[in-house]
Please model this.
Amino acid sequence: MNAFLNFLVPLLGLGYEAKDLTFMQISLRAVIVFLATLVMIRLGHTRSLAHKSAFDAVLIVILASFLARAVNGTSPLFATIGAGFVIVLFNRLLALIAYHSHSFGILIKGRPEIIVENGNLILSTMHRNHISEHDLDEDMHLRAHTDDLSKVRLARIERSGDISFIKK
Model:
C-alpha cells in the first residue's frame, strides 16, 4: 500500500501547491474528477441535468465549483471528490423527502403558477416571475405553435422555469 501511495503522490501531485502542478498532473486529476463526477451523477440520477429547476441548478453549480478546485490543486483531490459524493447524496436525500412531502417539495422546488387562463393574461403573476408578454409570445410560438392567445386555455410557469401551454 505504501508503494502505491509513493507512486500516486508525484503522479497526481498530492500535497503539492497548485502552482507547482504540472500539465500531466492536472490532466490526470481532471480525468479522475471526470470519472468520479460521472459516478456521482449516476448516483444522483440524471434528473439533475435534465430538469433545470433551481434545486437542481444549485447541485450543478456547487459540484462544478468545488470539483474544479480538485483539478487545479487548490483543494485536496480525494477529500474534495468525497465531499462531492456527500453533496450528491444530500441532494438525493432532499429530493426523496420532497417526493414524500408535497409541502417540502414546494419549499425547495417552488410551485407552478398560472400566467394565462382562457386566453387572458394574469399580469401580476407574469410580473412576479419576470415574464414579459414578448417572452410569453416567444414560448407560445415555440411550444404551443400558435400566435393566438385566445387559443390557449392555460399557460403556466413550471417549477423549472419553463412555460407550458394547454390549448383549448
